[in-house]
Design goal:
The complex is a heterodimer of chains A (253) and B (262). Chain A is of the alpha/beta class and 253 residues long. Chain A has helices at residues 43-50, 73-82, 90-93, 100-111, 125-135, 152-164, 182-199, 210-216, 244-252; strands at residues 2-14, 17-28, 32-36, 58-63, 66-67, 83-86, 170-174, 202-207, 219-224, 227-233. Chain B has a single domain (3-99, 164-261), classed as P-loop containing nucleotide triphosphate hydrolases (Rossmann fold, 3-Layer(aba) Sandwich). In chain B, helix 4 packs across helix 5 (148-160) and helix 5 (148-160) packs parallel to helix 6.
């Protein structure tokens, strides 16, 4: 089943130049799709379009048979609930004045009326926070701390816990490991993979690190200068039909 | 041997950040210092050039041309820094003054180090720019008008302007994407072969050093826990932590095959 269908998406910031140029992609339920490219290739712009924070200039993003551009208030709210995100910089993604438990509870409290959780159960705030912290392998005492008291890797785990707290259909991971050091990077990749097995959501994993994408994803898409150059199954990475640019990327790693 | 560090300790009050580190860097080699955040690798690199903050104290010795440069007076050290030992940092925006153009940065650098003739300075800047593969017209731009990769190229051009014996690159590619990082690393290698300067390359990412380094040292909690040739550390790491570092970095499957063959 297709979770999201992106067709001929276009986005431009300066007239005559497309930051995202005619990109079509579909994301299947339960899969991890990797999106690779160097800085400035348009991968984060694409993510911002998918999150609905950028207006698109052409094409469509279809979720649940509804084009995002035509969605009414209720449909958009449903979309926002089911498409969650994890950004590169966890420090900027957490409110410094809220304790970790405050950040973790926020999405649930926003959506609790329309929410039916399958995996997590909400009986008390404290219990819910503990379940989430346990899911991302953090000690449950951390709920009472502030973001600045945590390490970068711990903070990124918190933002992941927040993203999964309302059991979305899709999580957009925009360079989630780029600001972490190597040991935490490996651990976060493993965590993401085991969470997917547990909860069954899809990932769109955006990164410049082809090797990290290879580790987590089943399908890999390659972008350059706003265009989608190549998309392939992980097993076919060394296939001769790969785009010349994909081959160049492979040679780096 | 170009630089020899003996029992270097950096401490902050009672706390020891770098703990009796000894290592030697040979002429023209690429020495990689690998470790996690907080392992003390940056403090070690800053101690070499007397760049430590006022609360930090360095003891031990760093010998360069037969003298302990930790004891050099400030003025002498200012001369040495840039001419003999130069730096490239991770934060490329922090390395430049926002209201000076690239040209002004380079000009100031050369003037400080005693290149008096204006024409000579101009030529040197032009040459340096070409050597890092940048278009000469970019010298008139301000730092924020360049991309991260371009700024890091300018940093390299600046650092190599006076042909130092050793270049200390502290996470110079960490803030760049892997494609730009790769280009910067191959550029460094090319310039290293041309100028013969040694590189002390500090990184947390194993994959950045696997291809370029000659020697690797692994640092943890302020101590060097293992060091040796690249071949030895990659294929027969002894320390558990070294193995962890190697395994943590994701690699493509072919790369592993290739590595085991060589």
């Amino acid at each position: 089943m297709t979770v999201m269908e992106i067709s001929n998406l276009k986005k431009s910031y300066t007239p005559g130049k497309l930051a995202v140029n005619d990109v079509s992609l579909s994301i299947q339920q339960g899969e991890s799709l990797g999106l690779v490219g160097e800085s400035g290739c348009g991968k984060s712009t694409l993510a911002r379009c998918l999150l609905g924070v950028e207006k698109i200039d052409g094409g469509s993003i279809i979720y649940n048979n509804t084009p995002l551009a035509n969605a009414n208030r209720k449909e958009f709210r449903d979309y926002r609930r089911n498409v969650q995100t994890v950004f590169q910089n966890p420090t900027a993604a957490l409110n410094p004045k809220l304790k970790i438990k405050g950040s973790l509870l926020d999405p649930y409290l926003q959506f609790q009326r329309e929410l039916e959780l399958e995996h997590f159960t909400f009986s008390s705030k404290q219990g819910f926070v503990e379940q989430l912290l346990e899911a991302v392998e953090l000690p449950k005492e951390l709920g009472d701390r502030y973001p600045h008291e945590l390490s970068g890797g711990q903070k990124q785990r918190v933002t992941i816990a927040r993203a999964i707290s309302i059991e979305p259909k899709l999580i957009i991971l925009d360079e989630p490991t780029a600001s972490l050091d190597v040991l935490s990077q490996g651990a976060v990749l493993e965590l993401l993979s085991s969470l997917q097995k547990m909860l069954g959501m899809s990932y769109l994993f955006i990164s410049h690190d082809l090797a990290a994408v290879y580790q987590l994803c089943q399908r890999i898409a390659v972008m350059k200068d706003g265009e989608l150059l190549d998309i392939f199954q992980k097993e076919d990475i060394y296939d001769n039909s790969r785009h010349a640019y994909t081959k160049e990327l492979i040679s780096i790693f | 041997m170009i630089l020899s560090i003996n029992d270097l300790t950096v401490s902050h009050g009672e706390k020891t950040i770098v703990d009796q580190v000894s290592l030697t860097i040979d002429k023209g080699e690429w020495f990689a210092l690998v470790g996690q955040s907080g392992s003390g690798k940056t403090m070690l690199s800053q101690a070499i050039g007397q760049l430590l903050g006022p609360n930090l104290r360095a003891s031990g010795s760093v010998s360069y041309q037969g003298s302990n440069i930790l004891e050099h007076p400030k003025t002498e050290m200012n001369q040495l820094r840039g001419k003999a030992i130069s730096y490239i940092f991770q934060d490329y925006h922090g390395s430049f003054t926002p209201f000076l153009t690239i040209q002004q940065h380079m000009d100031e650098y050369l003037q400080t180090h005693g290149v008096k003739e204006k024409k000579k300075r101009k030529n040197m800047i032009k040459e340096a720019f070409e050597s890092v593969g940048l278009d000469a017209s970019l010298v008139r731009r301000y730092p924020f008008q360049l991309s991260g990769g371009q700024l890091q190229r300018v940093s390299i051009a600046l650092a190599l302007l006076l042909e130092p014996d050793i270049l200390i690159a502290d996470e110079a590619t960490t803030a760049l994407d892997s494609v730009s990082a790769h280009r910067i690393l191959s550029l460094l290698q090319e310039l290293q072969l041309k100028t013969g300067c040694a590189i002390l390359f500090i990184t947390h990412d194993w994959r950045h050093v696997a291809r370029y380094a000659n020697k690797i040292a692994v640092m943890k909690d302020g101590k060097i826990i293992e060091s040796g040739s690249k071949q030895k550390l990659i294929h027969q790491p002894e320390h558990v932590y070294t193995k962890q570092l190697i395994q943590a970095a994701p690699t493509l499957p072919m790369r592993i095959k290739e590595a085991s063959k060589s």
